[in-house]
Amino acid sequence: MLALRVMYSRHFGGLCALLTVLVLTAPAPVCGDQRQPATTPGSAFRVASNLVLINASVLDQAGRPVSGLDAGAFRLLEAGIEQKILSFNQSDKPVSIVLVVDSSRSMRKLIGRTAEAVSALLKTSNPEDEYSIVEFSDRPWLALGWTNDTSQVTDCLTRSQAQGNTALLDAVVFAGGVARRAANARRILIVISDGIDNHSRRSIASVKKYLLEANVQLYALELLNRDNPWTTAWDADGPALIQTLCEAGGGRDVEVAADTNLSKAIQEIAREIRNQYILSYQPTPLGSPGKYHSVELKLTRQPGAQRMSVSWRHGYYEPPRD
Questions:
Q1: Distance in angstroms (rounded) separating the CA atoms of residues 171 and 141
Q2: Which of 38, 81, 260, 294 could pair with 174 as two cysteines, CB 3.0-4.6 Å apart?
Q3: Cα-Cα-Cα-Cα dihedral sign, residues 53, 13, 183, 202
């Protein structure tokens, strides 16, 4: 049975980001153990226009994406003050996806399932999508640079070897830095792991703050591995850890048991990514770098309409001045 755990009780998630204008050069694809040091990237925000973009997912009672809504179906508030929606659309725009793949020894029996999940994801690709792979064990490294060639993605994963400890928190921040060099405006991290961390230098609190500041959205495909012989005291909170990361990253955690249809699980994530609504508004003038701005998104109730839930990120940190 497929168990879906949506962050914020299925009422929060999505992506909230300041509109950015960056000139970036995507690195040429590379594959292999490109063990670059896991440096902490700076803020992903550069204010070019005082607009805030909101990516919102709307699900029906069965957890299926709802399409065809118009702007009048939403109410948008910042700090409790209703905002005027300046633009609104729903379309399958190209995305840049960093696959954050756990290659630690606890995944030794699950490497085949990882490749199966990625193969199912690639079948949903838009031709303009691009992919990169960050693998991690004791530390993260760039296994594949940005590419539109899905065959390079599958080929790269066939070389994965499970060994070492697990630095999941470090990998998320490293992958966020890779996402900053993506070509598409929509940037998504998909973590494929058993949810364990026993080797990161970063704290949960610091990574949560990073995800609230970064222009990325985080989903996770959690491959259940309850018989892991390398579990430590910290690992006991593994499921809670990965839920917390998805909550801060505005996505959700899809839990996959050994008997779960893996293709169906990854397609749940893919459908949600492809059916998001994108709204924008102009907030009050920004002038306090580092200040947290709370954002609330509500669905207007229509008589006789089915019950729906909307998910989005709860807010953003104001970026530093250039």
A1: 8
A2: 38
A3: positive
